[in-house]
Design goal:
The protein has helices spanning 32-40, 75-83, 108-121, 131-142, 158-166, 215-220, 223-233, 241-251, 266-269, 298-306, 332-337, 396-407, 410-425; strands spanning 8-10, 16-18, 57-60, 66-68, 87-90, 96-98, 103-104, 173-177, 255-260, 277-279, 282-289, 295-296, 319-323, 346-350, 372-376, 389-393. The protein is α/β, with parallel strands linked by helices. The strands form 4 sheets. A 6-stranded parallel beta sheet has the order 10-9-8-14-15-16. The chain has a 5-stranded antiparallel beta sheet with strand order 4-3-5-6-7, with helices on one face. The chain has a 3-stranded antiparallel beta sheet with strand order 12-11-13. α1 packs parallel to α3 and α3 (108-121) packs across α4 (131-142). The longest helix is centred in the C-terminal third of the chain and has 16 residues, at 410-425. The relative contact order is 0.11.
Length: 426
C-alpha cells in the first residue's frame, strides 16, 4: 500500500475489507501499450531504480519507472511527487494504487491488465501464450493507440434535467445525499476544514477525531460521544430546501429511493416516508442495548444525554442510539437495496464528497445510460467524462432553489415552508 490512507468498508457479514475506488478519473493516464510491452520484456524482475531493492516494488503505469514501497524507501511515492504520475501497479499482489485518489482502484480494464500481469509473472498460470491472454493484450493495447475511435459522449444538460422533471419524463428518481445538504440547517459536517466536527474535537483528548464514533472506543469511554452528540443536538435543526426538494419528488410520486449518509433524520422530518429512505449510517429515532440487544426508549437516551449521564440497560449494557459507528455492520436494508440504484432513471447526488465506502460504491452501479446529476461545491469523485453527467457546482441551497423555480415548484416549496414553520412552533 502506497499511502497511510486506506478506505475500509464492511461486508454484510461484518468483516472489514479494503474497498477499491471503482470510478477513478485518472485511468486515462495509463499507457497500456507501453506497460504491456515492458511487462513482457522482463520489467517484473527489475529492482527499484533508486535503491536496487527487489522486494515489494511497484511500476508506474505512465512511464514504467520501478519504485519500492513505503515499507522500504518509498521511492514509488517519491516518483509520484516529482512527476505527478498517478497510478502504479504492485509487483507483489497485482493491485493498483492511485496517488491522486489516495485509494486502491479497480475497473474492467485494470482487471484485464491484472490478468495479463499474472500470466507473465506466474508464466503458466494462466498460460502466458493463451488465446485469451493475447486477446486481452490486444484490447488493452488499443486503449492507447489510434486503432479505436473514441465513442461519442452522451451529453446531459441542465435544460434536459429541468424539462425532464417538468414533463415527468423521470419517474424513478434516486437521491444520494451527505452532510452538505444539512449544513444550512445548522448541523456542521464532519470533514470540512475548520468548521467540520472532526476539526473541532481538540478539547475531547481523543486518540484521533474519528474515535468519537468508533465502537471499540465508545465501549471503553462513551463520554466524548455524549458530549459531541449533546452539542450537535443543541442546533435543533429543521429541514431546509434540499430536504424539501426530495419531499416534493416524493409528493409528485417521482421518488424511487433516497440513500443518505446523514443521521439527522431531516428527510423524515420533511415528510418523506421512511419506506423511501435508506439511512446508510443509521438514525437517532431509536436505541438499543449493546449487550442484550433489547430496545430502549430514545427519549430516555436524550434525557441522559442532557445531563451527560451514561445510559445503561438493566443488564448493565451500554445503551446506544441506532446510528452506525466505525466497527459496526451497516444496516441490512442498505445492502438489500444496494443494487436497486440501477433501477432508477435519474440519479441526483447532493452534499457528499463520495469518499466513504461502501456508500460511495453506489456510483459504480449506475448505468451510463442513466443521467447522473452532482450538486456540490467541488467534484473530486465523479469522472467529468462520464456519459450523461451534469455537474452543478456551487452552493447546494442556491442550486436547488433555482432548480425549483425553473421547474415551477415554487408554490409547492412555499407550502412546505409554511408547514415547517408551523411545526417548529409546536
Amino acid at each position: 500500500m502506497e499511502s497511510n490512507s486506506t478506505t475500509q468498508s464492511q461486508t454484510p457479514s461484518g468483516f472489514f475489507a479494503i474497498s477499491p475506488k471503482l470510478d477513478c478519473p485518472h485511468e486515462d493516464s495509463i499507457k497500456y501499450d507501453k506497460i504491456l510491452s515492458d511487462l513482457k520484456n522482463g520489467f517484473i524482475e527489475k529492482p527499484c531504480s533508486d535503491c536496487d531493492n527487489t522486494q515489494e516494488n511497484w511500476i508506474c503505469l505512465e512511464c514504467s519507472a520501478i519504485g519500492c514501497s513505503r515499507y522500504f524507501n518509498s521511492h514509488m511515492a517519491k516518483h509520484n511527487e516529482t512527476t505527478d504520475h498517478k497510478i502504479a501497479l504492485s509487483f507483489t499482489d497485482g493491485s493498483f494504487w492511485c496517488y491522486a485518489c489516495e485509494s486502491y482502484i479497480h475497473s474492467t480494464n485494470l482487471r484485464n491488465l491484472a490478468q495479463v500481469f499474472s500470466s507473465i509473472k506466474f508464466k503458466d498460470f494462466p498460460d502466458a501464450n493463451s488465446a485469451a491472454i493475447n486477446s486481452l493484450t490486444e484490447k488493452l493495447s488499443k486503449l492507447t493507440t489510434n486503432e479505436t475511435k473514441p465513442k461519442e459522449k452522451n451529453i446531459f444538460t441542465r435544460d434536459d434535467l429541468v424539462n425532464g422533471i417538468k414533463t415527468k419524463q423521470f419517474k424513478k428518481v434516486i437521491f444520494l445525499t451527505g452532510a452538505g445538504i444539512s449544513v444550512s440547517a445548522g448541523i456542521p459536517d464532519f470533514r470540512s476544514p475548520k468548521t467540520g466536527i472532526y476539526d473541532n474535537l481538540a478539547s475531547y483528548n481523543l486518540p484521533q477525531p474519528e474515535a468519537v464514533f468508533d465502537l471499540a472506543y465508545f465501549k471503553k469511554n462513551p463520554e466524548p460521544f455524549y458530549k459531541v452528540t449533546r452539542d450537535i443536538m443543541k442546533f435543533k435543526a429543521n429541514p431546509v430546501i434540499s430536504h424539501k426538494f426530495i419531499k416534493i419528488f416524493h409528493d409528485e410520486k417521482l421518488l424511487f429511493l433516497s440513500f443518505t449518509q446523514n443521521i439527522d433524520g431531516l428527510e423524515v422530518a420533511a415528510g418523506v416516508h421512511t419506506d423511501y429512505i435508506i439511512e446508510a449510517h443509521g438514525h437517532y429515532r431509536s436505541a438499543h442495548c449493546m449487550k442484550c440487544s433489547h430496545p430502549a426508549p430514545i427519549e430516555e437516551f436524550f434525557k441522559h444525554l442532557e445531563d451527560l449521564k451514561i445510559y445503561k440497560c438493566e443488564c448493565s449494557g451500554l445503551i446506544k442510539p441506532d446510528i452506525i459507528f466505525f466497527g459496526e455492520t451497516m444496516p441490512e436494508e442498505f445492502f438489500l437495496n444496494f443494487e436497486k440504484i440501477n433501477e432508477g432513471d435519474l440519479v441526483i447526488v447532493m452534499g457528499t464528497s463520495l469518499k466513504v465506502y461502501p456508500f460511495a460504491g453506489l456510483i459504480s452501479e449506475i448505468p451510463k445510460t442513466v443521467p447522473l446529476v452532482y450538486i456540490n461545491r467541488e467534484n473530486t469523485s465523479i469522472p467529468k467524462n462520464r456519459d450523461n453527467f451534469l455537474f452543478m457546482e456551487g452552493d447546494i441551497d442556491d442550486q436547488v432553489n433555482q432548480l425549483i423555480k425553473d421547474i415551477g415548484w415554487e408554490d409547492k416549496l412555499k407550502q412546505l415552508n409554511t408547514k415547517t414553520e408551523e411545526n417548529s412552533k409546536l
